[in-house]
Design brief:
Elements lengths: L7 H17 L3 H15 L5 H15 L13 H24 L19 H18 L9 H16 L23
Length: 184
């Protein structure tokens, strides 16, 4: 008597069922990640439950693409573009602050500052001016005002302090082939 192993279809069905059960048990993201990866590697279609979960995840993250908002940044793509612009402004100003030995914006003090009394504020103003110069040379920087840079910096700092991943663009990993294809 010979023992027959599962057919590829039976194997795929069993593995995807286990992932669906994992999802139903409350582990949605790990199960969905594994399902997408499994189907991609095996070259099979994503099951309906996983496809629907992916679409819902995209809608949760980027909002309803059919919603009509006002302005250039009301669409999901527009909001992501604006988040990227905020991130670039934050990143440039952060680098300029580090060059001045600062880790954050100095606290504003009440009243009129005395001349030469606040070296930290002076270094901050230099960093802000330098950031505006650098951003002006970038395609997306354009005519960037210092107030825009400060607002972007404050927004990103606030979101990162809350632990939000909205501006975690510095943690992106790009997957690419190990060697470029030059056989054209």
């Amino acid at each position: 008597m010979t023992v027959r192993g599962p057919t590829p279809e039976e194997y795929f069905e069993r593995e995807l069922l286990a992932l669906k059960e994992l999802r139903d048990a409350g582990h949605k993201l790990p199960a969905l990640f594994e399902a997408v990866q499994f189907c991609q590697i095996q070259g099979i279609s994503l099951p309906d439950w996983a496809a629907l979960d992916m679409l819902n995840l995209i809608l949760e993250r980027y909002g309803n693409p059919s919603s009509k908002g006002e302005g250039a940044f009301s669409s999901p793509k527009g909001r992501f573009t604006m988040d990227y612009i905020h991130f670039v402004r934050w990143n440039v100003l952060s680098g300029c602050l580090r060059m001045q030995g600062l880790t954050s914006k100095p606290k504003r003090q009440r009243g009129r500052p005395r001349l030469g009394s606040n070296d930290e504020a002076e270094r901050y103003r230099w960093a802000l001016k330098q950031a505006a110069t650098i951003l002006g040379k970038l395609p997306m920087g354009g005519d960037c005002q210092r107030t825009q840079i400060e607002e972007s910096f404050d927004l990103v700092e606030e979101e990162r302090a809350k632990g939000s991943h909205r501006f975690a663009l510095d943690r992106l990993v790009t997957l690419s082939p190990a060697e470029p294809n030059t056989s054209r």
